[in-house]
Amino acid sequence: MANLSIRSLGKTYPGGVSAVRDVDIKIQDGEFIVLVGPSGCGKSTILRMIAGLETITTGDLDIDGRRVNDLEPGDRDIAMVFQNYALYPHMTVRANMEYGLKNEGLPKDEIAERIAEASRTLRLSDYLDRKPRQLSGGQRQRVAMGRAIVRKPKVFLFDEPLSNLDAKLRTQLRAELKALHARLNGTFIYVTHDQVEAMSLADRIVIMSEGKIEQIGTPMDLYLRPATRFVAEFIGTPAMNFIDATVGSDGHSLQIGEQMIAADAPIHAPAGTLVSVGVRPEHLHRGQDHAMHVKLKTGFVEQLGADTIVHGEASTNGTASPLGVRLQGVHMPEPGSELQLGAALSDLHFFDTASGQRLNT
Amino acid sequence: MVENRPFLTVLTHAALIIGVLFLCFPVWMALVASTHSADALSSSPIPMWFGDQGWQNYSLLISRGLPEAGGVPLGRMMLNSAIMALGITFGKIAISIISAYAVVYFKFPFRMVFFWMIFITLMLPVEVRILPTFDVVTKMGLLNSYAGLIVPLIASATATLLFRQFFLTIPDELVEAARIDRAGPLRFFWDILLPLSRTNIAALFIILFIFGWNQYLWPLLVTTDEGLYTIVMGIQRMVNSGESLPVWHLIMGTAVLAMIPPVLVVIAMQKLFVKGLVESEK
Ligand SMILES: Nc1ncnc2c1ncn2[C@@H]1O[C@H](COP(=O)(O)OP(=O)(O)OP(=O)(O)O)[C@@H](O)[C@H]1O
Ligand SMILES: [Mg+2]
Fold it and tell me: CB within 8 A of A11, min separation 6: which ones?
C-alpha cells in the first residue's frame, strides 16, 4: 500500500477564497486518518486535492515518494467514496464496480474475480444485477465502497460517506468500515464533521479550523491533551467547560475567583495572564475533597439512564459561566438547587485565553 | 388539488371530453372524407360517417401518384419527407448534444460568448433568416439536394439549451467519480452522459421529427426538382391544382397517410419516454 506526504499544502479558490493553508501531514502506510473540523474548514478541499479533483495551489503531495501534484485523478492510484454515493444511475451494481477496471484495461477474468471478492466482503452478491435506485441508502454506500475496493488503490478517500444515513445504519457501517480497514490494511483518509465518528474510526485524527491544522494526534491524545482550546471544545460531548482564571504571582498557581490552585507543573505564562481552565463534564464529581471546586446552579437536566447530564451555571467564582456535568447513574437534582462539584488537578486543562494555546504540559 | 366531489368530477370530465372532441374533429373529418367519392364531398351536407370508397381511394393514392400533384408518386414524397425529417432530427440532436457538452464541461476561452451566441439565435427562426440562408445555400450549390433541405435546419439553440440545462442537473460527483475511474472526455460522454440523456433524446426526437416532417416554407424554396418534393408540399399542390376542382377525397387520404409516420414515431418513442420518466433516477 502507500504512505503519503503532504507538505505545506495550500489552496486558494478562484475568487480569492483561501480555503486551506500550510497543511503538513505525514501519513504512514496502512493508517486510518480522519480529517475532522467544523463546516467550511477545508476538509473536503484537502481530500479533493489528494484525489486530484482540485488543483493544488501551493505545496507538494507525494504518494509513495512520487510527486503527484500534476497527475490526473485516474493516474494517482486512489479511489474515492462520496457522500451522495455518486453511483452511475444507469448501470447495474456490477457495471458500476467494473467500470473503472474496464477503463484500466484489466483482463475479464481478473475483473470478475475482484468483483466476486468485493461483493462477498460487502455482502452485495445478491444485488449485483440491480440498478442503484433499487437499493437502500446503506446498500448504495456499500456499492460505492465496493467500487473503491475493486480498484485496489494505494489510498482510499472518503468524504463524509455516512452522513446521509440514519444513526443506526451509521453505527453499523462504521463498524464495517473499521473491519474493512483491518482486512484490506489500506491507507484510509476519511473526512467527517462528526467527532464521534472521528474518535471511533481513526488511528490518528487531523483536526482543522479555518483552513489550518489545529492538532494531529491519536484520539486519546486529542481527548487527554488537546493542544488548543478549539480542539478541547471540539472533541467530546457534552463539550468541555471553561472557567476563567489568572496566573498567580508565583507562576505555579492559578487564581479562580477566591480559590487558589497550585498546579503540579510550571505554567508557561507570566503572572497575571488570563487563563481558561477547561474541565470535561465527565471529570467533575460531587463532593468537597477535590483540587478544584465549583458550585453548579442546576438548570436543564438530561436523564439518559446510564448518565445524567446536568446543565447550569458555575456560580461561585464571581463570574457566571455555563457549566455541564455528566454524573453516572440516575440523579434528580431540583432545578435551581446547587451542586457542589470538583475535579482532580490532572483533569484540568489550562489554555491561554488570548491565544487559545495549551499552557500546562 | 385532489378533491373528491362528484359534481367536480363530472364537470372536469365534460370539459376534457369537449376539448378532445374539438381537437379530434378535423382528424375525424379527414378520415371520413378520404372514404368518399369526389361527388359526395362536393354536395352538402358533407358526410359525417365513413363512405364505401375508402379502398379505391387509398389504393389509387398508393399505387400511382396523382396527376394533380404533378404526378409525383406518393411513396416518393413520403420518402423525401422521411429523409428530411430524420436528417434534421438526427442532425439537430447530434449537434446540440455535442455543443451542450462543450459548453457545460469544458473550459475554453470565450465559452460564455459562444453560449450567448447560441442563445441569441433562438430569436432568429428560419423564417427570419430565410433570405441570407437561401443565399448561402445557393452559393454552396445545395439547391435541389437533400443536404440543402436538411443542413440549414439543423442548428438548434433550443435543443442545445435543453441539453445544457439537463447536464447542469447531473451531480458534479458523478463526473468526478468518472474521472477517478479513468474515463476520459470521450468515454464519459459515451458511457455516462449519453445513456443518462436517453429520456431527453426520446422527447426531443418526437418534437424534432414532427418539426422536420411538417417543414413547408423551406422545402418550397430550395426544391424545384419534383423528385425532391415532400409530402406536405404535395398536399399543398393538390389543393392549388389550377383549373380543376380540388380532389378533396384524395387530398384527405394523402393527409391521413402523411400523419402515419409522425404517429408511429410518437408511439415508438413514447415507450422509451414513459419508461424513462417512470424509471427516473434519484
Ligand atoms: N469551488 C469553490 N470555489 C470557491 N470557494 C470554495 C469552493 N469550494 C469550497 N470553497 C470554500 O472553501 C472553504 C472550505 O470548503 P470545504 O468544502 O473544503 O469545507 P468542508 O470542511 O469540507 O466543509 P463541510 O463539512 O461543510 O463539507 C469554504 O469556505 C468554502 O466556501
Ligand atoms: Mg465537505
Answer: A18, A19, A20, A42, A45, A46, A49, A54, A56, A57, A58
A125: nearest Cα among A89, A155, A97: A97
Whether B181 sits inside 8 A of A82 (CB atoms) is no
Its pTM stands at 0.84
Residue A276 shares a structural domain with residue A338: yes
ipTM here? 0.86
What are the residues whose beta carbons fall under 8 Å from the beta carbon of B275, sequence distance 6 or more? none
Å between B114 CA and nearest CA of chain A:
22
Write out chain B's pLDDT in tens, 282 residues: 566 778 888 898 999 999 999 988 888 888 887 777 766 666 677 777 777 776 777 777 776 666 655 566 777 888 888 899 999 999 999 999 999 999 999 888 888 888 888 888 777 777 788 888 888 888 888 888 888 888 888 877 888 889 999 999 999 999 999 999 999 899 999 999 999 998 889 888 888 898 888 888 888 888 887 777 888 887 777 777 666 666 777 778 788 888 888 888 888 887 777 766 555 543
CB contact under 8 A, A88 and B187: no
- Smallest Cβ–Cβ distance between B176 and the set A86, A87, A90 belongs to A86
Q: Are residues A243 and A186 in the same domain?
A: no
CB within 8 Å: B180 and A88: no
Q: In angstroms, what is the span from residue A193 Cα to ligand 2's centroid?
A: 8
Rounded Cα distance between A133 and B48, Å, is 52
CA A160 to ligand 1: nearest atom: 27
Domain containing A217: what range? 4-230
Domain annotation covers residue A357:
no
Answer for the pair B140, B70: CB distance below 8 angstroms, yes or no. no
CATH code of residue A248: 2.40.50.140
C-alpha cell at A359: 499552557
Residue A166 lies in a domain: yes
